[in-house]
Amino acid sequence: MTTGGEVDQLLDTLCPMHVRLDPAGHIRRTGPTLRKLRPVAALHGHRFLDVFELGRPRAVTSMQQLMQRSGTKLHLRFRTAPATGLKGVIVPLSPGQGAVVDLSFGISVLDAVRDYDLTSADFPATDLTIEMLYLVEAKSAAMEASRRLNLRLQGAMIAAEEQAYTDTLTGLKNRRAMDFLLDRLIAEGSRFALMHLDLDFFKGINDTMGHAAGDHVLRHVARIMAEESRESDCVARVGGDEFVLIFRQLTDRARLEEVASRLIARIGQPIIYQGRLCRVAASIGMVVAPRTGTPDAGRLMHQADLALYAAKHAGRGTHRFYRPEMSGDPGSTVA
């Protein structure tokens, strides 16, 4: 003979969302999953139709009418928030014993799993919901793996792009990056100035002290240029000991001369490498993008080169602005 406790255990296993009602329609016991949805005090002792709002069948307004709907699919929801939608079926027990209502989530199961933190243990072992939860979990795992892979790919792409625009020895931008920025500034119609800096006496460092010493000097000079420029500016290594600095929205000649003078003074200080002194100097040619018209990047670079050569001819370790007479070009660049 099956005891009441055994019946309850059986219902908990097979119907973890069941509700056991007394003949008057009051809730006397609930399954373990239903108890996760609402605290015991909110269910036990309350009338079933006070806890749940019946959507279908619409004609049912009393417990007696509900009892007569044995085997009919019920559409109902909690009257209190969250008003989770439920499906159910009522099965009357022996006369005077009340009834059992077996509930399920139907298509709202995913919302319920999220709202109540349910797991596969909250459903009957044969419920298709378990299979669906496994699929959802697998999908979530796949999406998370895809998200992480995308992040890694994006990081790799960013790193590759950064590497493509970076001089590996000095960490400065390279010629490709300089060309890109120069073209963009021209396309935007921005005002800017351009400096072409070349190291004097650098070949002697490589010849007498070796390329490791030369690399040390280049990195030291690169740090100086980075410190003397703004974050919005571009400092690029465009050759062995040649550099180009592009100053955004800086066209005042006096300020540019100050920057050039500081660069020449700092670069001219002795650089120590393995206890030995390395000495180089810097010559700088400068040009300012014109106020009117569309500048030509190649022409600006050529004009900066001419100004650089003029600085070298003036004795090295100095700077010069481009002037039309340097090339006999009547289309002068005027700041």
Automatic annotation (TrEMBL):
SUPFAM superfamilies: Nucleotide cyclase (SSF55073)
Domain GGDEF residue range list: 190-324
Alphabetized SMART domains for the sequence: GGDEF
Top-level lineage group: Bacteria
Transmembrane segments: none
Cited NCBIfam families: GGDEF
Protein name: GGDEF domain-containing protein
